[in-house]
Specification:
Cofactor (chains A, B): FAD
Strand order of the largest sheet of chain A: 18-15-17-16-20-21-19
Pathway (chains A, B): Glycerolipid metabolism; ether lipid biosynthesis; Lipid metabolism
Oligomer: homodimer
Subcellular location (chains A, B): Peroxisome membrane
Strand content of chain A: 15-25%
Helix content of chain A: 25-40%
Largest interface: A-B, 119 and 120 residues
Enzyme class (chains A, B): transferase
Shape of chain A: globular
Number of helices of chain A: 22
Protein name (chains A, B): Alkylglycerone-phosphate synthase
Chain lengths: 636, 636
Amino acid sequence: MAAPAEEAAGSGPGSPSSARRRLSIISGHLRGSPWAPGREGPSPSPCKARGAPAGPASGSIPKKRQELLKWNGWGYNDSKFIFNKKGQAEFTGRRYRLGGMVLPTFKEWIEKTFGASLEHKSTSRASLNVNDVPPSIISEEFLQDLIATKISYSQDAEDRVFRAHGHCLHEIFALREGIFRRIPDIVVWPVCHEDVVKIVELACKHSLCIIPFGGGTSVSSALECPEEEKRTIVSLDTSQMNRILWIDEKNLTACVEAGIVGQDLEKQLAESGFCTGHEPDSMEFSSLGGWVATRASGMKKNIYGNIEDLVIHIKMVTPRGIVEKNCQVPRMSTGPDIHHFIMGSEGTLGVVTEVTVKIRPVPEYQKYGSVVFPNFERGVACLREVAKQRCAPASIRLVDNAQFQFGHALKPQVASIFTSFLDGLKKFYITKFKGFDPNILCVATLLFEGDREKVLQHEKQVYDIATKFGGLAAGEDNGQRGYMLTFVIAYLRDLGLDYYVIGESFETSVPWDRVLDLCRNVKERIVRECKEKGVQFAPFSTCRVTQTYDAGACVYFYFAFNYRGISDPIHVYEQIERAAREEILANGGSLSHHHGVGKLRKRWMKESISDVGLGMLRSVKEYVDPNNIFGNKNLL
Amino acid sequence: MAAPAEEAAGSGPGSPSSARRRLSIISGHLRGSPWAPGREGPSPSPCKARGAPAGPASGSIPKKRQELLKWNGWGYNDSKFIFNKKGQAEFTGRRYRLGGMVLPTFKEWIEKTFGASLEHKSTSRASLNVNDVPPSIISEEFLQDLIATKISYSQDAEDRVFRAHGHCLHEIFALREGIFRRIPDIVVWPVCHEDVVKIVELACKHSLCIIPFGGGTSVSSALECPEEEKRTIVSLDTSQMNRILWIDEKNLTACVEAGIVGQDLEKQLAESGFCTGHEPDSMEFSSLGGWVATRASGMKKNIYGNIEDLVIHIKMVTPRGIVEKNCQVPRMSTGPDIHHFIMGSEGTLGVVTEVTVKIRPVPEYQKYGSVVFPNFERGVACLREVAKQRCAPASIRLVDNAQFQFGHALKPQVASIFTSFLDGLKKFYITKFKGFDPNILCVATLLFEGDREKVLQHEKQVYDIATKFGGLAAGEDNGQRGYMLTFVIAYLRDLGLDYYVIGESFETSVPWDRVLDLCRNVKERIVRECKEKGVQFAPFSTCRVTQTYDAGACVYFYFAFNYRGISDPIHVYEQIERAAREEILANGGSLSHHHGVGKLRKRWMKESISDVGLGMLRSVKEYVDPNNIFGNKNLL
């Protein structure tokens, strides 16, 4: 967008300045490249007035997160699984569809699956004891410089503790025990790109460590502060940097500040009739910047793509300077794609501040569905055929029998909303008439969206394929219920922790011909390892195929066990998870499909991408951030 | 795929060695990671016997390329445009459909478009004068080491000159003038990955410069040898490293050596009923490794994807070591994607030796089509709507009026094969009845492929959209002819050079709302610059939209002019091309959609990807290749 000085000067129609004028008139939203000589472009949007009130009006995540979200568990304060006075499982609050509903068979399922007893309740810290929290250590010089920027900040123990962790089991367990190791010394809330530039400049000047904090939903220990970090740790909370800067209806793109969380992004775009369609299970809390940093994947990637398919332009602030391309085109060949140096960098290189994403018109029609298969093998074969014919719906997921029964146990009581799956004629039909064994059958849930006519055509094609693999259509309700459970499942861990049950999920991607072996071997390995390590009751070890691709699939595992009688349950858990990952790798699976590496999976990086591959990542890190300002120690 | 030593030893079903045994039995083709402790995997395929005869039997590109291909022009020796004894334009040979056909209106078109006269024929060197060629300078120690490897090599002037260039205008012009600057000192022909490892080791040992040579079709000066290079330059010709190592029908992937050229890859896969569907215009000659190195794009990317969508696994040899991931999964989150450090590296980091690509069943049905639009604006609007509805055919391209007339001028005489477009009723219908102005109308060519039923449905949808934009279906023949011309167009430059006409193509990607402005402004800028620089006859300045994406399109320009009366035509050409690129950038276009950067477009790299972005690429180069063994000086 600029012409070098040595070109003919002048302002005639052909001159460089004429070209620039044309561009700035026509395309107000395009940014000139900071690196072009004679740059001329519209000035950056003014920063949001600092006088504006913070809080839910500007976005779903307030600065004082603990006022809305649990300080030592998942999600909203007003939402949790409990056992009511009658001893029935219930989900509280009014935020979710399941809210206020009794789950009549769930208690029995827990007792049967884990040998857990509601008599045995564990204790945990109800609230934070600030005396347990390490003091905030920052220099006076830095504090004065920070105050001069007018950027909002806090040294309160509660704010710092909230941002000291993600949602790995060991992190939540430590919170519940009141154990605080290294935590951030200060939290800052930039509200725009320029604020972030200032913070990074201060970090370079005062030799600080910055750990960017988006949704806080990391499950790779990415947010854990390195214990040996002696510099002041700044938790750079992006949640207040959350505006949609512009929507471009002609190109179907939107430029958005990276602190926006998924639910706000979709809600605000929907006001204009658009969506990104990016719906990771964490979307209530996870941020656009976090998705870019971790290579996130969304439930409906079959239509909308994963984050690397959605992103058109990224702007990132690093200690070395701003990284960004000078155009907003769908695809280019200008050497290795620097967007791919940024995506997956997991907070080790800088802070993503603004992202241009593709948007689509909100689909006119949505339809859920479900299919029962006699066994997991037939279900996988069906998904593979659907992938081969390239006719996958927006979402298609296959759960194994254990997860089917788990899902069934979470069925609420109010029959008018959800059709009881195994009740009455349907149960009879599937088990007696069709001969499906309820302890072997499995279920695929489907979501179609788009033009109504195309959806119905598409639906027919998929169900026809399913029939060839012995599948039986099982209704929209079961499909819808499967997806509805997505956002409440994460609340179960806190319930489990109350009753000595610990659990975690982990995932992988794998070629099609390895799916069945990997699923079977990993689940069996988990059971074996538990036995060897003295776990007294067989674990809950289950999996589902959550995404299909041309050349393979994403497989998601749940693993949970009753740790009564185990003196160091977290250590035992970690050993078993490590064995499970070794088993995954031995069976041709990857280190991660979408959760990322963080610190949790660093030990396998060299094996995964080769010594030279790891060296390439290190060389970029050393160039971009030679003093390790972004010192979360992920990946490398 | 390995278990660390500290895991429980033993050989029971759960042990690490048991996992490895399972894996090696089940998946014979998977390679163990070289970086995992205790690695066990199938041994690499033995290298092709050196006694096997080289030549076309093993692939389309012989070692002695000049026996088949032009040493100073494009393509096959037996195929060229000529003017026959009657002064008519004709295409020689039997290799192409156009072969042996007279093109009755082409001469007139050339004379009218360029003011060229067949009286004025330029001269060029018919054959290479080896005395003009710099001597081959290599050390005796290196030569002895090379002989010991048994890798085939040559110091012949002809072999070295052939690999000293790509197909930029200035490179071909220099060849025709008999000007040789720096050329490779030696050509080597590895036949497998292990050969490449040996060559790179020798280069490190003897301080050589390696320039990988795939198809030799670069149009970014990527293959030009840096004049100041004092070390021995080794042209590492990959054409004999060209086997399909395995086809995996279960995962629909194939592992192929990187020297295979497009036509051979598709031909050999078709024997098993598969294809990659990757069809760049250069596919007769360009190689898989070259596609990876330049981020190639293919005509049918709407179905099959661009190279980054096709690639599952890459193995590259660098001075630092081998780079590769340890699994073959569709998608992972293990930090920044190192495949994207390799793709686009344009021969600056190492040699790609083996690539796993996705394959698809050969489609059952193919159908061409064409649509006439009253003007270019309506055509672009139609393509934009097709992209918005995400219903683009395998290929859809829109040419402007000048290219439509150009294509019409290339119409051969034999009416039974091609329907004459403007003859008879059709011409009357379109121009008189429908009111299309033959000097404004433009044409879109279409290609559909897939299941016959779906193709016909898809076709209807696209033609319905076209009608809304004033488009008129113009028949399959015109579509087919448009695509058939793809492979012969490149031969035109040599004809032009015979008559003082020089020409080049260049391309960009651009957001949808900038397409019309960019097309108009760039074409006008070219015309203006030609006038200012004393070009005596208005240039041929034309464009087409060759690819559609969600957020924009690829635009491809042809630019040619009669340089009679210009003393330094190449210099004038370069100035005009540079101005055209400035105009592209000023209008929001990218530096390149798929041709790459090479040395031709280096000056805009900083502006394109930012100072920090460029620094990241440099940091990777300095780590992977600290002594600049891969010294083609592209990109950075």
